[in-house]
Write a structure and sequence with these properties.
Blueprint (H helix, E strand, L loop, with lengths): L5 E6 L2 E6 L5 E5 L6 H14 L3 E3 L17 H14 L2 E5 L6 H5 L4 E4 L7 H8 L5 E4 L6 H13 L5 E5 L18 H8 L4 E3 L1 H5 L5 H10 L4 E5 L17 H14 L4
Helix pairs in contact: 1-2, 1-9, 4-5, 8-9
Bound molecules: phosphoenolpyruvate and manganese (II) ion (MN).
Length: 263
């Protein structure tokens, strides 16, 4: 494949490069930031296992307005504490441009979620600030629509975009939550210089299916992975079914290191 670029993220532990010739950067953590103990503990555990970034939602895009919506601003403070305690870079989602400044004060990478992939006003705003952007693929977005969404960020002046495949809607949602489209790896390589992340957690919706899909993504030359990890998945406030325990994550990281460089 042709040349492609790297995104360099400044984390407390130093710069982490995501992209060509670099080890696979792994982002791990809970779907939602629930309390200080769980986020700090998870941060330490995933770091020890080799993750470079901690993920955790403060503002959650839930299908139901009655479902847990995230702890918002107070969760950002907990992410700051976990960042400090672990040295990991922080990745968290913005849903409302009005929250961008306070999210940017804590996050090292700003996530735009699948449901906002074509929120063009939001894309222009994240393009006008200087933190790297993780742009998730909309669940029904074509590759061209996804690349044009990335173009909004680039055109607004921010060249630091990572594309994240998180599964798409297909006709059979019975056994997996989404269909993880790993064919984006060779396709995107032929179309764009931007680095790629694969999220087998949202891609499959089931923790048992995460290890093999993570391995497949590495075999297909992904630049990075996003894996949901929760200290007690059965009690998680969101996405417990697809979350690995820290022990399981540690095991997966060991297995992945046999296939490719993850740390
Ligand atoms: C998430 O990362 O927790 C999330 C909500 O992801 P997506 O936008 O891919 O559904
Ligand atoms: Mn989630």
């Amino acid at each position: 494949h042709g040349e492609y670029s790297e995104v360099i993220v400044n984390t407390p532990d130093g710069p982490v490069s995501v992209g060509k010739h670099h080890p696979v950067a792994v982002v791990a953590g809970p779907c939602s930031v629930e309390n200080e103990e769980m986020i700090v503990e998870t941060a330490k555990r995933v770091k020890a296992a080799g993750a470079k970034f901690l993920r955790g939602g403060a503002y959650k895009p839930r299908t139901s307005p009655y479902a847990f919506q995230g702890h918002g601003e107070s969760a950002l403070e907990l992410l700051a504490a976990a960042r400090e305690a672990s040295g990991l870079g922080i990745i968290t989602e913005v849903m409302d441009a009005a929250d961008l400044d306070k999210i940017g004060a804590v996050a090292d990478v700003i996530q735009v979620g699948a449901r906002n992939m074509q929120n063009f006003a939001l894309l222009k705003k994240v393009g006008a600030q200087d933190k790297p952007v993780l742009l998730k693929r909309g669940m029904s977005a074509t590759i061209d629509e996804w690349l044009m969404a990335a173009e909004y960020v680039l055109a607004a002046g921010n060249p630091q975009v990572i594309l994240c495949e998180r599964g798409i809607r297909t006709f059979d949602g019975k056994y997996t939550r989404n269909t993880l489209d790993l064919s984006v790896l060779p396709v995107l390589r032929s179309l764009t210089h931007l680095p790629i992340m694969i999220d087998p957690s949202h891609g499959t919706g089931k923790s048992d299916y995460v290890p093999s899909m993570a391995a497949a993504a590495i075999a297909a030359d992904t630049d990075s992975l996003m894996i949901e990890v929760h200290p007690n998945p059965a009690k998680a406030l969101s996405d417990g079914a697809q979350s690995l325990t820290p022990d399981k994550f540690d095991r997966v990281m060991r297995d992945l290191s046999i296939i490719g460089k993850t740390v």
